[in-house]
Design brief:
Layout lengths: L3 E4 L2 E3 L5 E7 L5 E10 L6 E7 L5 E2 L7 E6 L4 E6 L8 E10 L8 E4 L3 E5 L2
Parallel strand pairs: 2-11
Antiparallel strand pairs: 1-3, 3-8, 4-5, 4-9, 5-6, 7-8, 9-10, 9-11
Amino acid sequence: QVHLVESGGGLALPGGSLTLSCAASENVRSINTWSWYRVPPGKERELVVSARKGRSPYYAQSVEGRFTVSRDNSKKTQSLQMNDLKPADTAVYYCHELASVYDDLGPFYDYWGQGTRVTVSE
């Protein structure tokens, strides 16, 4: 079974920065896509960024230029660097991966982190 473990959430001031991390379990052998979603208070889940091998990441317009996704395949970890945070970024953030425990041919399945809360407030 694949596990994604998130870390790095917390409280930040407007204009501040936070970095979220998402570590996949050792049995993951191949990643097709990796993404971050968030659920703001009282709202629906929304895509923050989605990335795929060989392609540039797609960022939601609300975060483009402020957030950066990266991946360290050797550590099976993806990170979300969040700069110039705004109160509207307050949400529970979830990492997501379309991953396989076999190889690049799959099969691939959806896996989610447990969620980490980010609060941006004075």
